[in-house]
Structures are given as structure tokens and as C-alpha cells.
Amino acid sequence: MSVDPYIVLNDGRKMPVIGFGTFAPESVPKSLAEESTKLALDTGYRHIDFAFIYGNEREVGRAIRAKVADGTVKREDLFCTSKLWSTYHTPELVRPALERSLADLQLDYVDLFLIHNPIEFKPGDDPLPVDENGQFIYHNTDIRDTWEAMEKCKDAGLVKSIGVSNFNKRQLELILNNPGLKHKPVCNQVECHVYLNQRKLLEFCRSHSIALVAYSVVGSSRDPQWIDQDTPVLLEDPVLIEMAKKHSRTAAQVAIRYLLQRGIVTLVKSFTPRRIEENFQVMDFELPKEDMKIIEGLNRNLRYDYWRLWTDHPKYPFHDEY
To answer: Are the beta carbons of 41 and 67 closer than 8 angstroms?
Structure first.
């Protein structure tokens, strides 16, 4: 099955199906985000995904501007995604948060702005506020009010499309069923890979013309602060390794191609030049139906990024089945 290099979102805009993710653990120098984004743009990526909480929007912005300046790419050919962090859900903070990101990026607009996750913390400039006992301080804005502020950012031309990330079905329905809804979410960006194939959430999103965008597509960076170190390493799966040999590909390329053939937009990230290039080389081969079925059987509903520190939050999204 051939894969189109773009999908058309429900607002009519096009999104490249392969994106370059810029998240990195604290141990990775911020300068690497700039270097790797430049290399990604040189390689052919035209969809760049970043976020305020990653702490590297200045570096990513520099890379984008450098590659526009040297003629590698035109700004209008890029699809740039940023995200609203969890301390800025109160409606009056949404636009200033977006404007801060735009200033750091030195861009006039982003192509997509997402509510990073449904969990909300105490409003303010401390991204992870805690009390005197070290407990996270939560907050509870109605997510529909946050969404209406997102809609205003779109209407103001600061962002072309708006969506969500890490939302479950119930949380998406809150927005979709809001009587005053003006703009539907164009996408839901979630963890999705061979071990967590998100079949039911994909079906739900499709039924509402919402694109599913996948992160952690070849597993996870395994940051010990967030990831259980006992979880299996996806790219060491013997079935994936065998299939990669059969197709003269890497296990990562097979894992990425599996998602693309299911119509899922795929974000890949690496700071290794060879892998940045390899992960982009997934449009010139095809997994036959029988291979797709075998990979489907590897699903374990295994979530690497399950946010164990926030499971008691009233809006924690992963208690629901999907």
C-alpha cells in the first residue's frame, strides 16, 4: 500500500506524514536540538514538532531560520507544531503562552498549536509547581474554556490549525460536544507504536475526521525519571528484527512504516545523523498485508510514557481504556 507524503486535516490544511520530534531528556545539551533540526531539514523533513516544555524552542527556531535563510526550505513549505503547557490552561494565559513561544522561535505563526495534555497544574511560570511536601499542585480549568481560547488564537492568525495531545476519547468528546464549538481539533498526538497500537483510539478519531499523530514510535528515550527501566526495548523485538532483515531495512524503519500504512502521522526523533536519515527513508518500501498482521499481533497495550507521578490527577487520561 502506497503512502501519500501528506494528509489533509479537517480544516483543509496539509500535514506531512513524517515529522521530526525535538524532545530530549535533560541530559542532552540544548545545542543538539539546533544541530539535529538543521540536519533533519537538510534530509528532507518538512514537519518539525516542538514544545515550550522541551526548553529548546529558541534553538529549534534558530535552525529553522538558518535553513530558510540559506534557501534549503521556504517557511510556507514547513509545518511547525508547538504546544500549550499545563500551567497555561486558564483562558487568559493561552494567547500569551503562544506569543512567548513565537517570540522564542522568532516566527510569525506556527502551523499547529496543541494542548499538550489534559492534565493541568497551578497557573504560573513554574512549569512543575510543587507544595512544601513536594506534591504537585493541580488546577482544574474546564478544558472547553481552554479550547475556546485556542480557537481565538487561530482566528487571530497566530496559528493555522489547533489540536490536542494525550487526550482520551472522553476528553475529546468534551470538546467535540461543546455547543459553542467553532473549530474541531485537527489531531490528537499520542504515544503509539508496535507495542501500543492505539487501534480503538484511531478508530474513534477517524470517525470524527481527527488525525492521529504518533510519538515514541520506536519506543522511548528511556529517561529514568519517567520510564520504567524494566520495560522491553521495542527495537530489540525479535519479530521486528527478523522482518527488518527480510526487507533489508532497520527495525526502526519497519516500526515507522507500520504506522504510516495505518494512516498515522509519525514523529521520529534522534540526535544521531545516520538515524535521522534512516528514519526518513521509509517511503520507498511496503509491508505486505501478512507482515502488517504479524506486527499487529505484537501489541501489548504497553505504555512507556504513562506519567506515573501524575496518576492521581483528576484529568489523568490513561485510566480509561482509550
So the answer is: yes
Distance CA(171)–CA(174), nearest Å, equals 5
Residues 6+ apart with CB under 8 A from 253: 244, 247, 278, 279, 281, 282, 285
Q: Is the pTM of this model over 0.85?
A: yes
Instruction: Name the one residue in this structure whose C-alpha cell is 474541531.
Output: 184
Label residue 277 left, alpha or beta by phi (over 0 means left) and psi (-120 to 50 means alpha): alpha
39-59 pLDDT per residue, tens: 999 999 999 999 999 999 999
Please report, in range form, the residues annotated as the binding site. 116
**Cα–Cα dist 253/148, whole Å:** 39
- CA–CA gap between residue 266 and residue 21 (Å, rounded): 9
Whether the Cβ atoms of residue 189 and residue 163 lie closer than 8 Å to each other: yes
Find the mean pLDDT for residues 172-196: 97
Contact call for residues 31 and 74 (beta carbons, < 8 A)? no
Residues 6-305, CATH architecture = Alpha-Beta Barrel (3.20)
User: Which residue matches cell numbers 504510516?
Assistant: 260
20-29, 95-104, 262-271, range with the lowest pLDDT: 20-29
Sign of CA dihedral 243, 237, 265, 157: negative
| C-alpha cell belonging to residue 179 | 455547543
Residue count of the chain, please give it.
Answer: 322
Count CB neighbours of 130 within 10 A. Answer: 12
Under a CB-based contact definition with an 8 Å cutoff, are residues 128 and 136 in contact?
A: yes
User: Which positions are annotated as active-site residues?
Assistant: 54
16 backbone dihedrals φ, ψ, rounded to 5°: -60, 140
Q: How many other CB atoms are there within 10 angstroms of residue 237's CB atom?
A: 20
Closest C-alpha among 142, 216, 144, 139 to residue 185: 144
Whether 318 shows a pLDDT value over 80: the answer reads yes
The predicted-structure confidence for 256-314, as pLDDT tens digits, reads as follows 999 999 999 999 999 999 999 999 999 999 999 999 999 999 999 999 988 989 999 99
Please enumerate, by residue number, every residue annotated as part of a binding site for substrate.
Answer: 116
The domain segmentation of the chain, as residue ranges, is 6-305
